[in-house]
Specification:
six-stranded mixed sheet, homodimer, 31% helix, Rossmann fold
Chain lengths: 331, 331
């Protein structure tokens, strides 16, 4: 295993220190492992959006902290949930009297820990809501998860609910918007190979020379089935087919072709072209899109597709200004 | 070899079609393989900035086409120079009476082809200048190159000269600025493993289990030497040392920690932290930075560091609004 790290046990703290050095507009608590906007006093009276999860999915979540999106993100160890104390500290640091919305990817550890954080927060008299993200259509239950896993829709919920919070909406409204984005979104991922965590030092699973995993999870957990490698057009069709079999996507969508960490951008654009064609053939149009590495799985080669049904107000919130390390427009 | 492609010979055209589908603000000539701003009439009287090179380095160059940066980019086959006809067509499509600046990475094929394009353009009565980018301190001559190779400074020159062109500066001024950025910039890259082109279907070189290549080129061409794998702090120090031994970096800089395609963002932030420390210990401060995949080598694991000495006016041009697929702020 060759990784750009100093030591497996130091990777999260070192990366957070690098994030702090690179982004003075963020305040990074390396000790307690959370990131929030440095200029937080400016958002008094605003609902605080707090997310987080295991590290190894960067830029998710810390790369989406900033005006128009998250207020804070907690970083767990690689592929491991953050602990309730981190979530509590992040919520305390960013809450401004209007309550806290926790955005939680559906993995058992994350769900339990965010629930405990919400209880601790309640003990301090701070109101919170939690919205569960469970957009991955691949499997119903999985390693680490009861129910569907949360993947690409997390970013969509963070962006769209974040924009609504920025406009001064109250906690129930912001929570309802995040839940709506989740309900309107579906994802499906395909791995061409495994990923290697720094702690394990060897690939998390094995695939044959000509084998892929359809429905892969973002930690490399098993999907629906293994299949022989196929052209990009067939892989895109498989992802779109799985997504559209699960929800009636008609009209306009926001579409993401997400790289899992080791697939070249050149290839992701090839996939996007095929996804666009597969959707067009179904009468579905892409109103907005993202192509790139947004919800990664360390060094996994492969991609995922996330679609969100988006009518007027969702698109308007999507287009609202955002300024984070990984997503930025309009400011 | 597993790649997200339909066929090796189709990858560039398919990726350009995907770029066109994803970015309606760009006009993509898939047949002649160049990309330019769709709303080009708006820039009449502006110096046209045209770059390009072999594919496989995305987002370079097409990902940097848009207001504030390039007017057009030509895409060659993977790791192969575009041909003069492409460059000519891109220049003709974007020139607006104020001449054309070609930004050329120093690889023999690119240099010869851009030179021929300039001659063809001159035959049509259109003035052009060419600025050679040769910032890589690793080796003096190399596979594909007489003299130093052009790498990360290309992006810096495209951004800074692009901002000056946007302000209406004339061709000699814009060319002088690009040359100045190149003169003020140095790069050094380190590979943890090889990359695989779709056409070859197998890695371009081999590295041992615990071996790295110091001074790697962006096509996998040899660097200075092979060495045992080392902690991120030592690798960052090696890159910074090579760069600072070549040019006296004092005061403020723009720094990029660039991923070569398959190194997780988590690790790139670990490297950034170490680069920041290595520079601070030399009295060098980072005024602006980029951390991510900007000048890639397909699926190569590893990173490069690019530094540019940047005083007031360079920083001001760096900060100017830009709106491209891969670099965007202020608009």
């Amino acid at each position: 295993m060759k990784k750009l790290i100093n030591a497996p046990e130091a990777v999260v703290a070192d990366a957070l220190a690098g994030l702090a050095a690179a982004h003075p507009e963020l305040s990074v608590d390396v000790e307690r492992r959370f990131v929030h906007r440095a200029a937080h006093a400016a958002t008094a009276g605003k609902v605080a959006l707090v997310s987080g999860g295991g590290s190894g999915h960067e830029p998710l979540h810390a790369g989406f902290v900033g005006p128009g999106m998250l207020d804070a993100a907690c970083a767990g160890e690689v592929f491991t949930s953050p602990v309730p104390d981190q979530m509590l500290a992040a919520a305390q640091a960013t809450q401004a009297g209007a309550g806290v919305l926790f955005l939680v990817k559906n993995y058992t550890g994350d769900v339990l820990n965010f629930q405990m954080a919400a209880e601790l927060l309640e003990d301090e008299g701070i109101e919170s809501r939690s919205v569960l993200i469970n957009d991955d259509v691949a499997v119903e239950d999985s390693l680490y998860t009861a129910g569907r896993r949360g993947t690409g829709a997390t970013l969509f919920a963070e962006k769209i609910a974040g924009a609504l919070a920025e406009r001064g909406a109250d906690l129930p409204s912001v929570a309802a918007m995040a839940a709506r984005v989740n309900a309107e979104s579906r994802s499906f991922g395909i791995a061409l190979g495994p990923c290697t965590t720094p702690a394990a030092g060897r690939p998390g699973f094995e695939l044959g020379e000509d084998e892929i995993e359809l429905g892969i999870g973002i930690h490399g957990e098993p999907g629906r089935r293994r299949a022989p490698m196929a052209p990009a057009a067939e892989l895109a069709e498989a992802a779109v087919d799985a997504i559209c079999a699960d929800l009636d996507f008609t009209g306009e969508t926001i579409a993401m072709v997400n790289g899992m960490g080791a697939s070249p951008l050149l290839e992701l654009y090839v996939v996007y072209n095929e996804v666009d064609k597969a959707l067009k053939s179904r009468g579905i149009s892409i109103a907005r899109n993202l192509v790139g590495n947004y919800v990664t799985s360390l060094d996994m080669p492969g991609f995922s597709v996330t679609l969100c049904r988006a009518d007027g107000d969702l698109l308007e919130l999507w287009d609202a200004p955002v300024r984070t390390p990984a997503l930025r427009w309009g400011m």
